[in-house]
Amino acid sequence: MLLNPGLPLTRHSLSRIRAVLTAVSVPATAVSTGDAAVLIPFCNVRNVPGILFEVRAKSLRSHSGEVSFPGGRADPTDLSLMEAALRETHEELSIQPDCVEVLGQIEPPELNLRGDLCVYPFIGFVYPTSSAILQPLSEHDPLPSCDLELIRASMNPSEVDDVFHVPLSELISPSRLRPSMFRGSRPYWAVNVF
Length: 194
Known about the structure:
GO terms for molecular function: coenzyme A diphosphatase activity; metal ion binding. The protein is built from five helices and ten strands. It is of the alpha+beta class. It has a single domain, classed as Nucleoside Triphosphate Pyrophosphohydrolase. Strands 1, 2, 3, 4, 5, 6, 7 and 8 form an eight-stranded mixed beta sheet that branches. Strands 9-10 form a two-stranded antiparallel ribbon. It is globular and about 45 Å long.
């Protein structure tokens, strides 16, 4: 097993995640308005490893009220798609880019149904503070936990209605998994997060 879902994430855990992520061909030139990026934010909350999800604000024009990862369209000022994912995470959840250790990307990126937007997913670990990244820990010491209530208190209410943490043990529970087909052609596992 790649990770023990019952134990907090450690530097060793992050190394193992980084080792299995596949590099994606990211445009070498400036990102286009047809590109978007999301961050899949791993973190420990009260020493429980998991992933942060957000509920998009009901006032938004698209995907309102949906559960999502932080992210969105790239801006012309973004130097990379990774920078776009980190900028959007900061705008939505007030998580500073220097509090995120980016571990890699998932491939392949997919075009939306209209064919005008390609979403690039990045995996990262969220630290409670930027100085926590620099703490001298052994490979197997638990990484610092984020304060979910602090993130909730700091999130942007014009973009996000809620943020929540789903433990890894819940995400891999057979009761939450169901087989599905992406656009009817490619199998994948869907996960019920509620």
